[in-house]
Structures are given as C-alpha cells and as structure tokens.
Write a structure and sequence with these properties.
Chain lengths: ~325, ~220, ~325, ~220
C-alpha cells in the first residue's frame, strides 16, 4: 500500500513537524509529543487536555486553540499516548484552576490517562476526567470494555472548551463534558478497511460488494457485515441504532463525519439522507457539521453523531473557536 | 545446574525477550489485526527495544532493578492497553523483589503473582475474558505447582512456558469481554488473543534463558 | 467500487441537497444548480462567480461566502457546468458593479464560461474573466491546451474575494486575480487513480508500486510514471518543477493540498518536507494551508501550490473570510 | 430511392443518434478514460437523451429547427468541451438551413461545413490535433466529393460515414494538441480520440437513417 511518507517509523514525528510548520500559533514539542496552545497556560482558565492514537486527524491536535483544547497528546498510530506525554501536556496547560482530561473510552487510553493523572496529582494539579463513550455499535457493556469513544469527542471538546474559555470552574466544565457525552450517540460504517503505515496492508478483508456496519475508528472490524447498501439505507440503519438509544429531548447537533477516505461530495450526499430521515422522524437539527473530523486514516466510510442540545449547549457550540480544524466567530 | 536468579539472569532474559519480540512481532500484529487494531507486535517491539536500550546504558545490579526498569520503559514507551498492563505488572513484580542481588525461585513465584494481581486490578479482567491473564494465570500456577513438587528452576520455568502456551491457545474459542476484541462480540471467537500470545513468548524466554544457562 | 451514494445518476443533486441542509447561510438552487451567498447581490460589490465539474469539493461551493465567492456552479462529475448555470449565477450576484468569472483553464470550462459571458453581456452585465492556469506539469503550451487550472484557484478566489469585499472596482479585482495566477505554480502527484460514480472503476491503472507525477484533478493520468518514492523525494521532484517556473521574488503562500483520498496525517507529513526543502532553498513561507481543498474525489495524492506574495497579497490572504471550507478573522 | 431531407428525416436521425449513444456510450467513456477524464460517453448520452426528450415535447417542423433544437439542448445539458463544440456546431448548422421545410443534399453539405467551421473557430484546433475535427473534416470532404461525382444522398452519406470512421481510426497514432488529451503529451499516442469516435457514430447514424429509408 502506497503512502505519502518517508517510512513507517517516522510517520508521527514527521507529521508533527509538518503541523508545527503549518501552525505557528501552536507550540508543538516534537520530542515530548505534545501540542499546546501558544498562549497556555491561560491565567485562571481550566486547562483541557485530550489525546489518543495518531491516525484520527484532525482529532485531537487540530482542535487545539482558543475555545477548545489547550493541549493534545498524539500517540503512535492507533495506540494511546503514554502517561509521560499526558503529564507533560497537563503541566503545560495548568494555570491553577485544574485540568480536564477528555478520554475516549478505550482500555489503553483510560489506563494511560489514569496513570498520568496520578503523576500530576502528585504535583498538586487537580484533574477531572471526562470519559467519552458514544458508540452505540458496542451494545452490551457487561460483556465488553464498554462503548467506544468516537465522534462525540468533537462535541465534548468544543463545548467544554467554550465553557472553560468563559472562565467556568473545573467541576462545571467537567460536568458539561459529561452531559454532552451522555446526550450523544454515534454509529459508523466502513466501505473499506484501514491500512496503517506499520502494517502496510488493510487491517481486515472487506469484499468489494460488502460493507461493515458499526465500525470503530481503529480499523477494528464492525459488528456486522452486509451486502453494499445505498446511502439512504445506510443512513436509515445508522439512525435507527442511534435514535433507539439517544435520550429523548429537543433539537440535536449533528455531525456527519468522514472516516478519511470518503470524498466530501459523498459526505454531503450522506448528510442529505440524514436530514431527510431526521425530518421524517420529527427530529429537529439545530446545527450540522459535515466533514472529516474523527477519522481512521484512509478508511472509506462515515459516522453519524447526534447530540441532544438544549439552548445552553447550542450557545456553547456557537461560541467562538479558533483551531486548525474548527474555526468560527473570531 | 539451575542458574542463579541474579541481575545478569534477568538481563539475559531481557535480551531473549527483545529478540523474540523482534522475531515474532509480525505474528502478534497479525493476531491483533484479526480482533484488534493491528499493533500489538509493533507495541511490544517498540517497548522491549526501548527497555533493552535503556538498561544497556545503565545496567541495574539487582533482579528487582531490571524488572522495575523494564516496566518503567514499557509504561513510558508503549502506550495502548498493553503498555500500562505489562509495564505495571513488571514494575510491581520488580518492586516486590526489593534490592536483593539475587532471588530464590520462590521469590520469583511471588513476583509473578504480584504481576498477575497488577493486571487484574488495572484491567479488571477475569480469567476467561480472552486477555493476557489467560496465559499468565495458568503459567504462574504451573510454575508454583512444579516448585511445590520439588522441581528446580529450569524445570519449573519449562512447565510455566508450556502452560502459558496452552493458555494462549485456549483463548481461541473464547469470546472476548475486555479490551478492543470485546467490541467484536461473537466475531472475536476463533482467534487467539495477541496479549496472551506475547505473554507466552515472554515466559518462554524465561524458560529458554534458564535452560541455556543450565546447559552450559 | 463502493461509494456512499444512492446511485450514479443522482450524485450531484443529492449532494447539493446535503450542502443546503448543512449550510443555511447559502442559497442552494438544486434545480438550476447554483450555490449563492444568501446576502447576494451585495450592494455596490463586484460579484465573483466560479464553477467547474463536481468532484473537487470543497472547491468551488465550499468557498462561497463573505470575503470569497458570491456564487458557484457545480457541473456534472468532472464535467464543466453549462452556460445556463453560469448565466443564472452571474445574474444572481450582479449588483451593477460587474462580475468576475474565475475560470480554470480547461477547454470545457473556458468554452462554457465564454458562452455564458455572451449571454449575460447581452443583458448588460459587465463580465471580466480571470483564467487560472497554474499547473506546471503541463509544460509546452504550444502543443497543448495550455496549463491546467488547479490549486491556485483557491488563492485566486480568496484574494479576489477579499478585494471585492473591500469594494474595489471590477478592473482592479480582475487584475489582482490575474496577478495571483501569474504568481502561482502547482504540481501534483497521484498514488491511486480516481473512480467516478458513473464509471465505477478507476479511470486508469496504476500498479501498486508506482506513482503518477504531474497529474491533474480529473483523473487524467500524469506525464510520467515512476516507482514509488518517499514523501521527501516527491516533495523535491514537485518543488523542482515549481521553482523552475515560479517568477522570482519574496515570500510565498503555500498550499499543501490533498487530492481527497490521502489522510490529513500524510498531508502534514508532506508539508514538513515541503517546508524543509523550501528552507534549504532559501524560500520564505509567509502562510501555509494544509488540507483537502482542490480534490479529485477519492484519489490518493497531493499537490503543492506556491504563490509569490507581496505585502498586499498577504494582507488580502489574511483578510476575514467566512465560507464552509475556509474561515478566519470573523 | 433517396429519402427527402425533411424534419422527419432529421428526427429519425436524432432517434438513431440517441440510440447509438446509449449503446456505445460505455465504449466512448472507455476511450476517454485512456486519454481524458472518462466522461465522453456519459456526456453524449446525457445530451442526446435531453435533446430527444425536448424535441419529442414540441417536434420542430423544419430540418433547421431540429438541428438548432438539438444544438441548444447539447449546449445547456452537456457541459465539458464537447457540449459547446457539438452544440454550437449543430446550432449553427441548423441556422444555416433557415426555415426551409426540406433541404437538398448540397445544402446539407454547406451545413456540415458550417459545423466544421464552428468547431475550428471555437476550439482553435487544426486537423491532426487529435480531436473531433479529424473525423469531421475528411467526412465532409468525402460527402462533398461523392455528391460532386454524381452520387445520391444515401451513397454520399455512406461515403461520409466511412471517411469519418477512417478519420477516427487515424487519430490513434497522433499526439493530441488540444483538449484534455494534450496534457498527456506523448502518452496520448496510441489511443483513439473519443470525440472523433462519437462524430463517426453520428455520421453513421445519418447514413443508416438514409439507407433505412431508401431500403423501404
Ligand atoms: N482489560 C484488560 N485486561 C487484561 N489484558 C487486556 C485488557 N485489555 C486488553 N488486554 C490485552 O492487551 C492486548 C492488546 O494489546 P495492544 O494491542 O498492544 O493494545 P491495544 O488494544 O490498545 O491496541 C490484548 O490482546 C489483551 O491480551
Ligand atoms: N479544442 C478542441 N477542438 C475540437 N475538439 C475538441 C477540443 N477539445 C476537446 N475536443 C474534443 O472533445 C472530446 C472530449 O469531449 P468530452 O470528454 O465530452 O469533454 P471533456 O474533455 O471536457 O471531458 C475530445 O475527444 C475531442 O475530440
Ligand atoms: Mg492499539
Ligand atoms: Mg492493539
Ligand atoms: Mg469532462
Ligand atoms: Mg471527457
């Protein structure tokens, strides 16, 4: 499998150099592998740190900036970062008001962030963890590691980021993050498997006329494989799974997210089906975001995330943000 | 004659473990590709090479020192689920050995039990959940049982390696309930767990180190 | 080839619906196939219209908004739009100050825009055309249809858009557009061929260990095929071709653009090589943009565009823009 | 007996042309895939179907009316290079026929020459540049030469079709200098030009329409 790289071993380091070159407004430590707002720590502000395996770009590094994350820790490809990175990031953004760790629910991320929190708490930094577990494809949490964290991470990072930027205290920032997570559900499909630089071949075989329903963002196969479906059928299947589980309520924020290898054209087309179906079911969409935000390298496919949002959440969603990948209002 | 469990022994084990991760890494990744995210071999290779390098720079002079050093390196270089689990297991095992410059086979058993406890506590998995524990638990049992029945170190480690191997193979029919493979539900059945497999390789490296020493 | 579509015939129409659903700030006429700023025509402002085949998203529809295009006309996939669309778009944005047509240099685009200009000029709208032809892969313009228009289109649309937003008159807006085009050069490579919905299979065969150098954005094969190269070698080859032809001068704007199927991670990595080489050659980079902007559906690959930019061009580049795909300063 | 060149004849041609685009469109797209952007057949199919539909709604009652109507539809439905070229060629050819309710074979020749001029002017290509002109020019010449040597309409159109076919085939060894294929430089050599091929299909549709009428 061909890639635009110099070799599998230097992918993360090389890409971090390129991120630094493109974004002078970010402080990128390519040694320690942390990406930090240049103006961090922001006096009096709760710090926001997230991180995870590399390969989901722009998540998380692309969401560092005013009104969103203060720092991100990119791990190896599809491998959670190590506690040292998280501790360094936490220290870099800690302004005395505490730090929130936004952690996607994967065994590796949870364990490493837990160890990092212990390290920095030893140094007197107060840490709250917000766990993101929105993926309804993982159903039975008694017999699994629990639902995965996927698309809702963007909602959690944006909305906690807005509240932190306003100067809210640690407990309140963490609480809104948990509320966003509890109000969000995601379902994803893959049309092709992903190829990691190190492995160099697709992580699973997917026949040319089938798709995987309920995939994650690490090239894991999904729960179910079917004959290829139309965009409308896929949207229907995904929304059935999501709406079945989504708490009742008013309008939603919608993220129609590409997995990386699907053209924007198809994502907009998919969005049309999502809106048509939500309209038919009487679900009002307050805001829509379409694009490649929580990706899985070159995987073709898409995910839908809905978040029930009251006026406060919509207000925080609309609040100014200035990051490489999400920018508005300033 | 059974070797002495001193720092040099554990350093030889580390070399053997690093070599086996280099050699078998692709197979581990292939196993992880079937039910995970295709990185377990890469993770183990990165971690053990980092540990070997770090330890080569300043070789610890106690068994505990070697294990703690390896554990720390795994924690700060591996990431993923296996980094904290392996790393904490080895770090706590090493700590349990204190600063003795050599340890008895019985002390090694206690250290291995400490490792099992660390993985259980941190990961919350039980035997049968299709994780590395499914190789660790029977392996430590076999080791202890061999010692109890009067076997020497080399023989007991051989029993531990065989049991780890069997334990890893026995994960094939299981449905995963922890870690990434659990997301697959029933589709995780029919594949061997990568973490259990790497445990078996590590214990086998212990057994081979002891046997190599004994044969000399 | 699997796609997230309902069928090859409705791709453009369905995607336009999805664009409209996601962007209430745009007026999307799915019948006439024109995408217009909701506040158009802006009193006293020169109108800016572009368009081209569908399949290059976010180009052009994603660049409609404050400080950039007033309207875009999406054609069929990889097929220039028809004069009726362009005429409708021109009429919709004409505020009496004249309209600039930004046209990528392809026979089809040029001919259709020419016919459209004739139509609207009959109705008294003054039209200036800015032709974009930045692709140095097409060398000998005596024996070709001339250089293709590719990545520089983004620079032309952004910078003319900024000047028009400031209220500059028609001749001046067109002149700055031509200046940007003359100051820009692009070179692109493909790691895979593109698959169009209608054809359903890759438009050319590319062996798994080779790449195409000097590709366009319509799935045309390139000028040359080589054994796969590293990111650094590709950047070197591309920049050699660009710098050979780029007018001398001061700092540059750099666009490191993905063709659609290449993960953002690889684009940042590629950007690192671009910056490293430009640094070695003493070329100062004033601004960098990395991402999928001028794409070719699912094609894997990337292009580099450099534009020599004096202080005025940098100022116009930095000016506020608010479109689906490019947004800053407001 | 040679058919009369009235509106009905041109409507039968349109039906035959639409049918052949439906049938041969994939081949045209395949040719365009080798040296272009893989849409020529799709473009032609969309354009001629739109033209057939439009004309079916309000059938023009003169030859000129049919050709102008088809040309307009191609201009406003096809896009790409071929839309304006084909469309303008047919529109101008139709206009040159005025509002006569039938035309002579010689008037048709003049109309075809008008079409050639339209393509040359708009696209700026010369014969040998590997474009549709390479089928049009020899075809119109052959048609005129046949008329000059006393042939009837059916025979002259057959000669035109044969010459268009040869002209299309003769584009294979050429290097393209206009249109998208020119970007390929020498790599455009060895492939038949899609536009020249669709011209040959259209002229053949004329010839077959005439022959079908004549055979009745
Ligand atoms: N909760 C857990 N308890 C014990 N072992 C676990 C747990 N979760 C995962 N593992 C082990 O980790 C292995 C996967 O390691 P690795 O692939 O390196 O990490 P990741 O799953 O983060 O990619 C699994 O095969 C399993 O043996
Ligand atoms: N300048 C030109 N003059 C005459 N014919 C041209 C010119 N450019 C392109 N063509 C014809 O158009 C054909 C391609 O048509 P089509 O594929 O429908 O349009 P596009 O190239 O825009 O995709 C070519 O095969 C060629 O015969
Ligand atoms: Mg992993
Ligand atoms: Mg893994
Ligand atoms: Mg085309
Ligand atoms: Mg074409």
């Amino acid at each position: 499998m061909k890639m635009l790289i110099n070799g599998p071993d230097t992918v993360v380091a090389d890409a971090l150099r390129g991120l630094a070159d493109a974004h002078p407004e970010l402080a990128v430590d390519t040694e320690k592998r942390v990406v930090v707002r240049r103006d961090a720590p922001v006096a009096g502000k709760v710090g926001l740190v997230s991180g995870g395996g590399t390969g989901h770009e722009p998540l998380h590094s692309g969401f560092v900036g005013h009104g969103m994350l203060d720092a991100a820790c990119p791990g190896e490809v599809f491998t959670s970062p190590v506690p040292d990175q998280m501790a360094a990031a936490t220290a870099a953004v800690s302004a005395g008001a505490g730090v929130v760790h936004i952690v996607k629910n994967y065994t590796g991320d949870v364990l490493n962030f837990k160890m990092a929190a212990e390290l920095v708490e030893d140094d007197g930094v107060e840490v709250e963890q917000v766990l993101v577990d929105d993926d309804v494809a993982v159903t039975d949490s008694l017999y699994t590691a629990g639902r995965r964290g996927t698309g809702a991470t963007l909602f959690v990072e944006k909305i906690t980021g807005a509240l932190a930027q306003e100067g809210a205290p640690l407990a309140q920032v963490a609480a809104v993050g948990r509320k966003v997570n509890e109000s969000s559900r995601t379902f994803g499909v893959a049309l092709t498997a992903v190829t990691t630089p190190a492995k160099g071949s697709p992580t699973f075989d997917l026949p040319s006329d089938e798709l995987e329903l309920g995939i994650g963002i690490h090239g894991e196969p999904g729960r179910e494989r079917r004959k290829m479906m139309t965009a409308r059928e896929i949207a229907e299947f995904s929304l059935d799974a999501i709406l079945d589980d989504l708490p009742p309520g008013g309008p939603v924020l919608a993220l129609v997210n590409g997995m990386g290898g699907t053209p924007l054209l198809e994502l907009y087309l998919f969005n049309a089906e999502v809106h048509r179906i939500l309209g038919e079911r009487g679900v009002q969409v307050a805001r829509t975001l379409v694009g490649n935000y929580v990706t899985s390298l070159d995987m073709a496919g898409a995910s839908i995330t809905l978040c029930r949002a009251d006026d406060e959440l919509v207000r925080l969603w609309d609040a100014p943000v200035n990051t490489p990948a999400l920018r508005w209002g300033m | 004659m059974d070797p002495v469990l001193d720092a040099a022994f554990f350093l030889r084990w580390l070399a053997a473990a690093t070599e086996v991760m280099d050699r078998e890494g692709d197979r581990l990744t292939e196993l992880d590709s079937a039910i995970g995210d295709a990185d377990h071999g890469i993770n183990m290779r990165r971690g053990f090479n980092a540990a070997s390098d770090a330890v080569a720079k300043e070789p610890p002079d106690t068994p505990g020192g070697v294990l703690v050093g390896v554990g720390r390196q795994l924690i700060s270089k591996v990431g993923g689920a296996s980094g904290p689990l392996y790393g904490t297991a080895l770090r706590r095992a090493g700590k349990s050995l204190g600063d003795a410059d050599h340890v008895t086979p019985e002390q090694l058993r206690d250290a291995l039990l400490t490792a099992v406890d660390a993985v259980s506590e941190l990961g919350g998995a039980a035997p049968g959940d299709k994780t590395m524990l499914d190789a660790m638990v029977p392996s430590v049992q076999a080791y202890g049982a061999a010692l109890d029945s009067g076997a020497g170190l080399t023989q007991a480690l051989a029993a531990a390696a065989a049991a780890a191997d069997e334990g890893a193979a026995a994960t094939i029919p299981l449905q995963a309930r922890k870690g990434r493979a659990s997301y697959l539900g029933e589709r995780s059945i029919g594949h061997q767990d990568p973490g259990a497999t790497s445990i078996a390789l590590l214990i086998d490296a212990f057994a081979r180190t002891a046997k190599g020493d004994a044969d000399e």
